[in-house]
Design goal:
- The complex is a heterodimer of chains A (about 250) and B (about 350).
- Chain A has 9 helices and 10 strands.
- Chain A is of the alpha/beta class.
- Chain A has 2 domains: about 170 residues, P-loop containing nucleotide triphosphate hydrolases (Rossmann fold, 3-Layer(aba) Sandwich), CATH 3.40.50; about 70 residues, no CATH class.
- In chain B, the strands form 2 sheets. In chain B, strands 1-2-4-6 form a 4-stranded mixed β-sheet, with no helix packed on it. In chain B, strands 3-5 form a two-stranded parallel sheet.
- In chain B, a hairpin with a 2-residue loop joins β1 and β2.
- The longest helix of chain B has about 40 residues.
- The N and C termini of chain B lie far apart (about 85 Å).
- In chain B, about 35% of the residues are buried.
- The chains are: A alpha/beta (about 250), B mainly alpha (about 350).
- The interface between A and B is medium-sized, with 27 and 32 residues.
């Protein structure tokens, strides 16, 4: 069966001033797969993620999400595309002045017509899903780093996204919490056929969750394929990444 | 279009029970089915369901006092989704209890006492280290007092000059016109000299410095606290009070009297201009009356006031900076609280001085 492409970038170029950060990136990301963007620090991983989501406007090239070219899409139309996606930021990006309950309620209250009792039920089940039942009425400053990440994940999942984007979800977490988060993501993919695009350095995490690898090196696409193919790709930088990391 | 149907006490759900169809399904449910007898929920038609859909099913089950066993004929993937998003295992977490008025009042009072106590601790530490720090130069950054004196004193000169000039201008005009009616215009010099030297000069300067430098002190220290710079100083065996607060304390103690003197001179100069230009008073008379009316006691009280105001500003700014919690939002709150509290404290201290030294 032919797989459905859910995100497609074509010759994507991103620049900071005159510096080219992404140089002609062409990749396809498939529905229901966990795609990991990796590479050394400063290679353009987060920039690629943010260009796909138009948090940075691409310099040239195109980005398609759900089969629609979103590169220069009208703001209102693009917001409708964004509502079908969720984003887990590196530091959670929870609003500090309000409770976890209120943080998760924001997308539901702003983008749906659901009555408060259903919203409350959804929030509680989402927070249960990430094992934060006990922290519903706490504020982010009262949570640990791992708890903040899980709360942010619950917020990202609030609108039942078809694609979940994660920027270094394991950064700053201990191996056990990191493994828990990976298990949660695998579960979500299995249960809901959710597609995920994850930027990470963590080799253990990559081994646990990655279906596909997008390997960047100094803004260029070095490899795009499965994890097994990456390990025997014959591309020195890609193979070295896995060899060094396995020590 | 998604529709609910009822046959033989069995409610049939439509194919799509997802977040976008729930509002319509809820309306339909409440309008047509809520009061009808329902014993089963048939989900054989359901092809897509999400968390919101599961919440809807649970709402229906709850309204009809049914258990999960009442859901029948579900496809395995639909059943799995219901399993994932089921709230059956959600542990009840009650909302924090809102205390009554008296409890809140008591807690505000206790917090106030606690803040006063902590503020006094910080003040005593700061004053101690500011004296000890003069003799012992270790644990201080070289040139930090000069740097702070420039930021607090020199950089504030233009705004102090502008506001003092305007205040002197307004005071002279308003009072001069009234005095002229009684043929007592010449007393404008006495009135201005006393009011500006004893009250307006120190007060206006303190309010400007509380808004300008007090907020800068609070936000700088608060940012250092949230970015763990204060902890880093402690880890390097440096006393944060001595390293961060004492240079500001020395700088403001030195520069505030100079700023007040500058403010007084500018305000009186504005008064002189108006008096000569509009009230027909000669410059010589104005200057001699303005100087002669002042006693040494007035100058000393102003100096004492100025020093007390400057200490209040720096200690309140540092206190709010040091007690900050949270991130960016905490820094904003600390800055606002510091400005409001220091202006309040300065006015209160001024009132106390007025009562003691009439």
């Amino acid at each position: 069966m032919k797989k459905e492409i859910i995100i497609k970038t074509t010759n994507l170029v991103a620049k900071y001033g005159e510096k080219v950060v992404l140089d002609g990136i062409t990749v396809d990301i498939y529905k229901g797969e966990i795609t990991v963007i990796l590479g050394s620090s400063g290679c353009g991983k987060t920039t690629l993620l943010k260009n796909i989501l138009r948090l940075y406007q691409p310099y040239s090239g195109t980005v398609e999400i759900f089969g629609e070219d979103v590169t220069n899409m009208d703001e209102e139309l693009f917001n409708n595309v964004l509502k079908r996606t969720g984003m887990l930021f590196q530091n959670g990006a929870l609003l500090n002045s309000i409770t976890i309950f209120d943080n998760v309620s924001i997308p539901l209250e702003q983008h749906t017509n659901l009555p408060p009792k259903i919203i409350e039920r959804i929030i509680k089940t989402k927070l249960h899903l990430v094992n934060l039942d006990h922290a519903i009425y706490l504020t982010p400053s009262e949570l640990s780093g791992g708890m903040k990440k899980r709360a942010a994940l619950a917020r990202a999942l609030a609108l039942e996204p078809e694609i979940l984007f994660c920027d270094e979800p394991s950064a700053g977490l201990d191996p056990v919490t990191s493994a828990d988060l990976d298990a949660l993501m695998l579960n979500l993919r299995k249960q809901l056929n959710m597609s995920m695009v994850i930027v990470t350095h963590e080799l253990a995490s990559i081994h646990r969750i990655a279906d596909k690898i997008i390997f960047l090196d100094r803004g260029k696409l070095l490899f795009n394929g499965t994890l097994e193919d990456a390990k025997k790709s014959g591309i020195p930088n890609v193979e070295m990444f896995f060899e060094v990391g396995s020590f | 279009m998604s529709k609910l149907t009822l046959t033989d006490k069995t409610l049939y759900l439509p194919d799509k029970v997802v977040i976008i169809t729930i509002p319509d399904l809820l309306k339909e449910w409440e309008r047509d089915f809520l009061k009808k007898e329902i014993t089963q929920l048939n989900i054989s038609n359901v092809t897509s369901i999400d968390g919101a859909g599961v919440s809807f099913i649970e709402e229906v089950l709850e309204a009809k006092s049914l258990t999960r066993e009442a859901i029948v004929n579900g496809d395995s993937s639909v059943n799995r989704t219901i399993e994932v998003f089921s709230s059956a295992e959600v542990k009840s977490s009650s909302k924090p209890i809102v205390d009554n008025f008296l409890v809140n009042l008591g807690s505000v009072f206790l917090n106030f006492l606690d803040e006063m106590k902590n503020g006094l601790y910080l003040a005593s530490d700061t004053i101690w280290w500011s004296i000890a720090g003069v003799l012992e130069r270790k644990g201080r950054r070289k040139g930090s007092v000069t740097e702070q004196a420039i930021a607090i004193g020199l950089d504030a000169l233009p705004i102090v000059a502008l506001l003092s000039f305007v205040i002197g201008f307004i005071l002279t005009l308003q009072s001069g016109v009234q005095l002229q009616k009684f043929g007592a215009s010449v007393f404008i010099a006495d009135l201005l000299s006393i009011s500006i030297v004893r009250e307006m000069g120190p007060l206006i300067t303190a309010i400007i410095i509380a808004g300008r430098s007090g907020s800068a002190i609070a936000s700088e220290i608060a940012t250092m606290k949230v970015t763990e710079e204060i902890d880093a100083l402690k880890m390097m065996s440096l006393n944060p009070i001595k390293y961060v607060i004492v240079p500001k304390f020395h700088a403001i103690t030195l520069t505030m009297p100079l700023l007040v003197a500058f403010s007084v001179i500018v305000s009186l100069a504005a008064g002189l201009m108006i008096s000569v230009g509009m009230l027909d008073i000669s410059g010589e008379v104005f200057v001699s009356r303005a100087i002669n009316i002042l006693a040494v006691k007035d100058i000393l009280i102003t100096l004492a006031k100025t020093v007390v105001f400057s200490w209040l500003i720096v200690i309140i700014g540092a206190y709010y900076g040091m007690k900050v919690t949270g991130g960016a939002e905490g820094v904003g709150k600390a800055t606002t609280s510091s400005v409001v509290t220091s202006i309040f404290a300065v006015i209160l201290a001024d009132a106390a001085f007025s009562l003691i030294y009439l």
